[in-house]
Write a structure and sequence with these properties.
About 45% of the residues lie in helices and about 10% in strands. The chain is of the alpha/beta class and about 300 residues long. Strands 2-1-7-6-5-4-3 form a seven-stranded parallel sheet. This is Dihydrodipicolinate synthase family protein.
Length: about 300
């Protein structure tokens, strides 16, 4: 897809924390800069992998402001701003716009289950009208987590009612048929479809999607960048095989602490293991297993990071 605002590989960036569990934007910014230098075209900050819903409203603003202050271009970032509260969603979206972000990723209101399409349309209508333009909204379809999926009918209604306001979707459902249906229905009008699953990157690009926003891109972005640049051929196929294998490795343990373990060992920075409850650090056996799985996938050492000895 041409002219996609976030076309290519976008990492769902881990949020660095201090020992007291407060956000550490400076360390997070270092990681973000490494990602942009190693295959990423953009950064999905404060999403599921970034533990956004474990942070308060003011903390989320602090993280975004801290990233900008530490030299991460706001234009590269797509912050998650969707909450269960209409007012908070609007406030976070306006804040992202004020920082210079070009787009935000918006969960549906997820506390009340089984809302109707009419109810969701009313919610997003209020968000769009209160934000007032100047920043693109990307829908976050993750029904396994939110329990609130986006139907094709709802997306079509929003696109018709608010041309240009809703720019695309991150589909983390893992259902490629659903991603393809969105591409077939809306990509011709510039709607950007991003896979939340690494195994579909090459395929979604070939079929008119815009790219990916994935958790494993925190550590496999080098190979994602190859797939995005080459698209087809032996080099792209080999890189896609690494993406698929690393996705499997990443999900062999709890995803977020597992990715923190890979970055912690690769950088020699134990602070990356710090995580907010209810998430927990991996056991030593789990940590060793996920590291071995990434090795078997052919992704270690991570380009540009260097590796501290696995035995710590």
């Amino acid at each position: 897809m041409k002219d996609a605002l976030f076309g290519g590989v976008n990492a769902a960036v881990l949020t660095a924390m201090r020992p007291d569990l407060s956000p550490d934007p400076a360390r997070m910014a270092d990681h973000a800069k490494w990602l942009l230098a190693n295959g990423c075209n953009g950064l999905g900050v404060l999403g599921t992998t970034g533990e956004a819903n474990s942070f308060g409203l003011h903390e989320r603003k602090q993280i975004l402001e801290g990233l900008v202050a530490n030299g991460v271009s706001a234009a590269t970032m797509m912050p998650g701003t969707g909450t269960a509260s209409l007012a908070d969603t609007v406030e976070l979206t306006l804040h992202a716009k004020a920082q210079g972000c070009r787009g935000v990723l918006v969960l549906p209101p997820f506390y009340y289950k089984n809302p109707s399409d009419d109810g969701l349309f009313a919610y997003f209508s209020e968000v769009i009208q209160r934000v007032g333009g100047g920043i693109a909204l990307y829908l976050y379809n993750f029904p396994q987590q939110s329990a609130v999926p986006f139907s094709l009918d709802l997306i079509g209604r929003l696109l018709k009612a608010y041309p240009g306001a809703v720019k695309g979707v991150k589909d983390s459902s893992g259902d490629y048929a659903n991603m393809k249906a969105m591409i077939d229905a809306f990509a011709k009008d510039g709607f950007e479809v991003y896979s939340g699953s690494d195994e579909y990157v090459q395929r979604i690009l070939a079929e008119g999607g815009a790219g990916c926003i994935t958790a494993a891109s925190n550590a496999n972005s080098h190979w994602g960048g190859i797939v995005y640049a080459k698209r087809t051929g032996a080099e792209a196929d080999a890189a896609q095989a690494v993406l698929t294998a690393t996705r499997k490795a990443a999900t062999s343990v709890a995803l977020i602490p597992g990715l923190r373990e890979i970055i912690a060992r690769s950088t020699g920075d134990d602070g990356w293991r710090t995580i907010r409850p209810p998430h927990l650090k991996l056991s030593q056996a789990q940590a060793d297993a996920v590291w071995k799985a990434w090795e078997v996938a052919g992704a270690l050492p991570l380009p540009g990071l260097g590796v501290k000895a696995a035995a710590e």
